[in-house]
Amino acid sequence: MSEPGNSLPGVSPIDSSDPTIARGRRSLALSPSRASDFRQCPLLYRFRAVDRIPETPSVAQVRGTLVHSVLEELYGLDAPERERARAEAMVGPAWAAMAAADPTLDALVGDGERAGFLSDAMALVANYYTMEDPTRFEPESCELRVEAVLPDGTKLRGFVDRIDIAPTGQMRVVDYKTGKSPHERYQAQALFQMKFYALLIFRTRGVIPDQLKLMYLADAQNLTLAPQEEELLSFERTLSAIWQTILAAGVTGDFQPTPSKLCDWCDHKQRCPSFGGTPPPYPGWPE
Ligand code: SF4
Q1: Which CATH number describes the domain made up of 28-52+141-243?
Q2: Is the minimum distance from the CB of 41 to ligand 1 under 6 angstroms?
Q3: Stretch (H or E) spanning 144
Q4: Are 56 and 67 in contact, with CB atoms under 8 Å apart?
Q5: Fewest CB within 10 A of the end CB: N or C in the chain?
Q6: 266: CA distance to ligand 1 center in Å?
Q7: How many CB atoms lie within 10 A of CB 71?
Q8: Predicted confidence band of residue 26 (pLDDT cuts 50, 70, 90)
Q9: Is the CB of 46 under 6 A from ligand 1?
Q10: What's the chain's average pLDDT?
């Protein structure tokens, strides 16, 4: 296994000292969610990635952020201290910190729903403890930002919830989901995300993770994948093709709407031509 941080020949990690990143300017890269947006609807991708039009999160998304923050904080404690009661007690303060940083979140949850919101978050944390015991191992890293540029210039970026390295050297990449596990027929998006993480790790560390694990806390189910090099190389070609299509659309601004039943959950319906709206003027590709 290569040392963490080593790159494969011809594959460059993105330089995090790059001023366009360090100063928070726009530097587009393909992430699992943005790739999925483009596959679902190119115009949705444009609104989110290029125009960067703010969206109102759902209460479920806010709850997910809260639970992720508790689990991240939990692994900042020494292993013996990561007991369930301690984790559940972290939910209230973590929510207070989130609500103080962004008061619109508290307004979104609402006074009458706050107690139920917090108790649902605690139930998800409690479910987590039925799936694994965090006092029994030490992760290699948590909430890791991983970025790479493939040889053809495709930029990849992702945030990995947790990486575990066993004493045998085997690597497990873990992602927490606060919803329920998908039915077999609807696992494509989950598999897409897992392969994306596997490729990022492969291209930045030169090692293929032995296991990718999605932990669905709502029903305490795991979805796992043991990726193979051949399928990752094939997946890499798929991502490169998606990125090239995005770049071509970026030049012309031609991001076509693709209506589907998912439009019911789209925050941009009022500006979407498929629903009688008008998109704002195209701001141009940010490079
Ligand atoms: S409403 Fe539907 S078609 Fe329009 S941008 Fe959103 S997802 Fe795309």
Answers
A1: 3.10.310
A2: yes
A3: strand 141-149
A4: no
A5: C
A6: 6
A7: 26
A8: low
A9: no
A10: 90
